[in-house]
TrEMBL record:
Pfam hit, one: Asp_aminotransf
Alphabetized PANTHER family for the sequence: AMINOTRANSFERASE, PUTATIVE-RELATED (PTHR43799), ASPARTATE AMINOTRANSFERASE (PTHR43799:SF1)
Superkingdom in the source lineage: Bacteria
InterPro entries for this protein: AspAT_Ic, PyrdxlP-dep_Trfase, PyrdxlP-dep_Trfase_major, PyrdxlP-dep_Trfase_small
GO molecular function, one term: L-aspartate:2-oxoglutarate aminotransferase activity
Name of the molecule in the record: Aminotransferase, class I/II
Amino acid sequence: MPYADLTKEELLELKKSLKAEYKAMQNRDLKLDMSRGKPSQEQLDISMGLMDVLSSDADLMSENGSDCRNYGVLDGIPEAKELLGDMMEVPADNLIIYGNSSLNVMYDCISRSYTHGVMGSTPWCKLDKVKFLCIVPGYDRHFAITEYFGFENVCIPMLEDGPDMDMVEKLVQSDESVKGIWCVPKYSNPTGNSYSDEVVRRFARLKPAAKDFRIYWDNAYTIHHLYDLDQDHLIEILAECKRAGNPDLVYKFASTSKVTFPGSGIAALATSQNNLEDIKKQLKMQTIGHDKVNQLRHVRYFKDIHGMVEHMKKHADSLRPKFEMVLDTLESELGGLGIASWTKPKGGYFISFDTMDGCAKEVVSKCKKAGVVLTDAGATFPSGKDPHDKNIRIAPSFPPVADLEIAAKLLCLCTKMAAVDKLLGE
Ligand code: PMP
């Protein structure tokens, strides 16, 4: 029965029994962590073959004739561009291969725009006001970068099929201080939703007031499906921008952090030739070249995109039971109670969970006191401030399934306790 239909006496009775359950949980001395979207050890082990493909007698020449051990090849070896290009669904010529972290590349794009501007426009550091659009709930590390540079982060609600595009269009097209938008278009962090064709088309057709406005299209989960058949496929944004007569509008990012190793994968940026030229002016001051041995290692290991797709099925086999365990537990414990809602992703790394308004902080704190660490409530909003205090990001990848069941049960219990208190006006 929905909690809202319970009488005060029933709620008080329920409160008592939930409290006893919570005490029992506390006595179990749990130490579980569902806070960050890290691959589990089992997932890291999937890629250990990477360590075997280059031995001391391996030929380390790239197909362009350069020795991968040496300096040079600023934008990455051709075979790595080919592989990552296929992963990102863009031609190899539109790519730069970087080091291990795409977040680092995003930071560099902001930093370069701040100090030197975008394609000859005024550096952002010289402007009185710079605004960035943040789709919420979203990825805390995106918001942290633009906050760090002193920009105003403006929240845009995430709907089921992508951000509220009416709002995006209005702000981008009317306000010259809006310089960019953070997007996770596929299996978004944290909702797991993907943008519809209509949303992608509207993005590509934006007519920004600022000529140095760029869409930061973070395709972190581009091949990270949970299911073999039921997968999301998006219109490719670079090609769509070109078709719409807006070829320079987007920077597209990806990495193999959650394909191989987050600590030592390879990252890439895909964008138009004009943007690439602009970016390389800075890049050649920053480095003589990234880690080409690692690029070669990835290419020799996967061979081609088919190798990568097969590899991702092993990750899916490891992740799927974890997502399903959490989702099944949420459904069996909270279904029909009217006190919480959650997303049911088909890929990516997260489930987005909403408590009743004003309860998320309390739920996270209660879980912590019983030994389960969740991502801080509010983390999915700029400056960590969720105006409704209801969103919690669940990251099921790291703990073993058995631990997840306990952690999810505790989350449900704490959600019920907070809801009862709320309904009792306490
Ligand atoms: N973007 C998103 C949306 C992410 O969720 C993450 C990792 N949690 C990253 C980027 C980090 O990517 P990288 O490891 O390539 O820096």
